Amino acid sequence: MEENNQKETNVKATIDAVTGLVQAVPIYQDTLQPAAKQIGQTLETVSKTVNIALAPIKALVWGYEKIESYINLRVSDKLKNVPEENIITPKPEIAGPAVEALRFVGHDENLRELYANLLANAMDKETIHEAHPGFVEILKNISSDEAILLQAFLRKQNYPLLDIRAKAPETQGYVVITSNFSHLNKISDVENPDLIPSYLDNLCRLGILEIPALTKITVPNTYEILENDISLDNVKEQILDQNRTVELSRKMVKVTNFGNQFLKNVVLDKQ
């Protein structure tokens, strides 16, 4: 809303400036007035369009009553198997930011479930020591798709990756054409599978995953299915058409120690 007010203020300031110019230089008044009027109409139209585009956001932002209702229902369900004497008040440095964040992500089922898991573990005397305050900040920095992708790492700790590189003849240099290619799209029902390489980069940035240098999975036949994936044929052909050599660099992505703690207390559904 502040942004809309600021935009309206800017619109008014722009119109006033143009009008002031017309008044200051009367000789050009007939020429500039239509232009000033057109600018005003255009900016007013943009402002209305922005307001219309932002209108649904009002419905998406949760109020305290809705957050309270969700916590009472969902978190209580996750704590139903916890002895009553073990249910404690969560630390404010976890509960406060989590409740505040739910205002803006409560509409997203994938993300709100993670917040519910964190709050439930923060209210269980047996697990509160593992509910790290930093988990809320991590949740604020992941998308709904990334929440879905993390489910795959509950089933398995590491996955093979490929970089497709183009090497120029008679040189040691190369260019990475495709990075972090994987088959995670085949086991994760994400909305934007083409963005999985970027999702992996972000989850590594947050310390949940890592792609260690010069490290690969040693289990036989792990990479062959990736290397022979027909979806890479066009990329390989383009490299060869440029008289360059195709190089397939084997890598892996795995869960960090901190990531395991996050998966256990945030991603894993608390029963």
Radius of gyration from the CA trace?
27 Å
How many domains, in number, for the residues?
Answer: 3
| Strands, count | 4
Report the sheet-strand fraction: 5-15%
The span between the termini is: 40 Å
Main beta-sheet strand count, sense and barrel state = 4 strands, antiparallel
Q: In terms of structural class, how would the helical and strand content be classed?
A: alpha+beta
Question: If strands are numbered along the chain, what order do they take across the biggest sheet?
Answer: 2-1-4-3
Treating each run of at least 4 consecutive H or I residues as one helix, how many helices? 12
Task: Give me the CATH fold name of the largest domain.
Answer: Translation Initiation Factor IF3
Low-confidence stretches: 2-32
N-to-C SSE series? HHHHHHHHEEHEHHEH
> What sort of overall outline do the alpha carbons produce when their principal axes are compared?
flat
Overall pLDDT: 84
Based on the structure given, which CATH architecture of the largest domain is correct?
2-Layer Sandwich
Helix content: 40-55%
For the record, the CATH class of the largest domain is Alpha Beta
